[in-house]
Specification:
Family: Belongs to the P2X receptor family.
Distance between the termini: 42 Å
CATH architecture of the largest domain: Sandwich
Low-confidence stretches: 401-428
Catalytic activity: Ca(2+)(in) = Ca(2+)(out)
Radius of gyration: 37 Å
Protein name: P2X purinoceptor
Helix content: 25-40%
Shape: elongated
GO cellular component, one term: plasma membrane
CATH topology of the largest domain: atp-gated p2x4 ion channel fold
Function: Receptor for ATP that acts as a ligand-gated ion channel.
Order of helices and strands: HHEEEEHEEEEEEHEHHEEEEHHHH
Bound molecules: adenosine-5'-triphosphate
Length: 428
């Protein structure tokens, strides 16, 4: 038994197979075949070519630069600091116009600090020494008591007086939401030797002084009011400015370079980056400390310590461009045609193996090979492997079109039918 099986297989190995087309007058398979063809054509045209622009080669913008500049003034009046006029050089940190910047909206100043001994009011004498991370100086070891009965606080050597406990009640730079930020972005797509800026190309020298970004009216104006940015991100600037927060500005370039230079323009998206699912998180807000140092007439060193709350802006750029190229077009057309063959294979399987008259069609199709007619299961599997292979070719070619490589070779084995991609082998 086993011997005749292997002899049969060996004999079939040296059979030469040629294509044969039979016209099956079967309406159901015919309609199925046309529907599959329609679906594949729709997929190729609609998805591969129109939606995914399979006729273009693409490039990601790796080179991009962002420069920012803020304008606007706010006045604060506090008991510690008196009246202060805040300009961009005071409230923008760092001031040199980076893509990540912090705008002060609230602050606590501890003015005229001098090096010396003073009580660290936040550390009681009974507190564990290991908690001294809270301390703003070196502990002298003395306990400062107001009277005999009080617990007392530790004395430190550091910048005195130390910062008082502060819970912000509301923002001090109330005009901060009217500050404007000018975002200058340059992007380049090296593959297409294309570069552009987000600043509208106009000869009107006053344009930047007058314009403010608006999705509808001025989508290409690069000057944004801070209050509008947070509003577009879905938050109120005044609410954010008491404890601070973080906002992401995404500049998105999605350019179809076939449409020309003037149609390549950025889109802006705004999101709050420090949101949390729970409102009760202890991570809300954004603040840090910095100091300004100075000397008095006698040469003594002083400093003013600022604990600043504010909004941190993070400008991110994403760029993608596409341009017509014959190579991805040819690859996608070829892979589309290959996929058409999958419809014919599927219908062959239905006709030869699932229909009642499958035996009849098989007899006519596999003429001269008893072995193939008898081993239905083996050949059904072979067909399925071939179908899977065709789909693989399509997917593989589709992904390769990005890299412009060649198409993979057919890997059909001896017992699989080497099918033609022509569509007319079954007609309804
Ligand atoms: N944040 C901003 N808000 C409004 N207008 C701005 C802002 N930043 C810059 N501009 C205006 O945009 C134009 C171009 O700015 P740019 O920094 O290139 O030139 P500039 O002459 O150095 O600006 P300036 O001296 O006014 O800061 C200038 O008219 C400037 O006043």
């Amino acid at each position: 038994m086993a011997g005749s099986f292997f002899t049969g297989r060996l004999a079939a190995l040296f059979d030469y197979k040629t294509e044969k087309y039979i016209v099956a007058q079967n309406k159901r398979v015919g309609v199925l075949y046309r529907l599959i063809q329609l679906f594949i054509i729709g997929y190729i045209i609609g998805w591969v070519f129109l939606s995914k622009k399979g006729y273009q080669e693409t490039d990601e913008a790796i080179q991009s630069s962002v420069i920012t500049k803020l304008k606007g003034v706010s006045v604060t009046n506090t008991t510690e600091s008196g009246v202060i006029v805040w300009g961009p050089e005071d409230y923008v940190i760092p001031p040199q116009g980076e893509a990540v910047l912090f705008v002060v909206t609230n602050f606590l100043e501890t003015p005229n600090q001098k090096l010396g001994y003073c009580p660290e009011v936040r550390i009681l004498c009974i507190d564990d020494f290991r908690l001294s991370a809270l301390s703003s100086g070196i502990r002298s070891g003395r306990c400062i008591r107001k009277d005999e009965n009080s617990t007392g606080t530790c004395e430190i050597y550091g910048w005195c007086p130390i910062e008082r406990n502060f819970k912000p009640q509301g923002p001090l730079l109330t005009n901060a939401e009217n500050f404007t930020i000018y975002i200058k972005n340059f992007i380049s797509f090296a593959k297409f030797t294309f570069s552009k800026s987000n600043v509208l190309e106009t000869t009107d020298k006053t344009y930047l002084k007058k314009c403010r970004y608006d999705e509808e009216l001025h989508p290409y104006c690069p000057i944004f009011r801070l209050g509008d940015i947070t509003r577009r991100a879905g938050y109120n600037f005044q609410d954010m400015s008491t404890f601070g927060g973080s906002i992401g500005i995404m500049i998105d370039w999605d350019c179809n370079l076939d449409k020309g230079y003037s149609n390549c323009n950025p889109q802006y998206h705004f999101t709050r980056l420090d949101t949390s699912v729970s409102n009760k998180t202890i991570a809300t807000g954004f603040n840090f400390r910095h100091a300004r140092y100075f000397k008095n007439g006698g040469g003594e060193s002083f400093r003013s310590l600022y604990k600043v709350y504010g909004v941190r802006f993070n400008i991110m750029v994403h760029g993608k461009a596409g341009k017509f190229s014959i190579i991805p077009t040819a690859i996608n057309v070829a892979s589309g045609l290959a996929l058409m063959g999958a419809g014919a294979f599927f219908c062959d399987m239905v006709l030869l193996y699932l229909m009642k008259k499958g035996n009849f069609y098989r007899e006519r199709k596999f003429e001269g090979s008893r072995y193939e007619r008898q081993h239905t299961t083996v050949f059904m599997i072979c067909h399925m492997v071939h179908l899977k292979h065709l789909l693989f070719i399509h997917i593989h070619q589709h992904s390769l079109s990005l890299f412009h490589r060649g198409t993979p070779k057919s890997a059909c084995q001896d017992n699989c039918e080497e099918k033609s991609m022509e569509q007319g082998n079954l007609t309804s």
